[in-house]
Amino acid sequence: MLLSLGRFGFLNIWPSVTKILFKKQWNNFLMIRKELEDVFIPLIQERSKSKQERLSKVDQSDEFVLSYVDTLQDLQLPEEKRKLGEEEIVSLCYEILMAGVDTTSTALLWIMANIVKYPHVQ
């Protein structure tokens, strides 16, 4: 998804028009999005299941680590009076993961470029 992200930037311009003009690109984007959901949704459901099992136990002596997904599942949208859906949680998890990857890869590229530019630093 990260490698193909640049291919789909133009679809944001006029989504209602680009859905008609660039149907193949939209289908590719939606297919990639479906693959992303197929990976994340079982993980989110499993985390929710383990949290429910822990809450149902009387003996809670083991330590439970609160995760990012737990906070997203507990979050309620004040203006709409509803909790986030699985697709929204997938989007937020993807954004957090890719934000870390993008900045790290940019920093590494910059470091490598400067090592090549100044070989005495090696």
Automatic annotation (TrEMBL):
* Major localisation: membrane
Q: Where in the cell is it found?
A: Membrane
* Pfam families (alphabetical): p450
Gene Ontology MF term list: heme binding; iron ion binding; oxidoreductase activity, acting on paired donors, with incorporation or reduction of molecular oxygen, NAD(P)H as one donor, and incorporation of one atom of oxygen
Q: Which cofactors is this protein said to need?
A: heme
Q: Name one GO cellular component term.
A: membrane
Q: Which domain of life is it from?
A: Eukaryota
What the entry lists under InterPro entries is as follows: Cyt_P450, Cyt_P450_E_grp-I, Cyt_P450_sf, Plant_metabolite_P450s
Q: How does it sit in the membrane?
A: Single-pass membrane protein
Alphabetically sorted, this entry's keywords are:
Membrane, Metal-binding, Transmembrane, Transmembrane helix
Q: What is this protein called?
A: Putative cytochrome P450
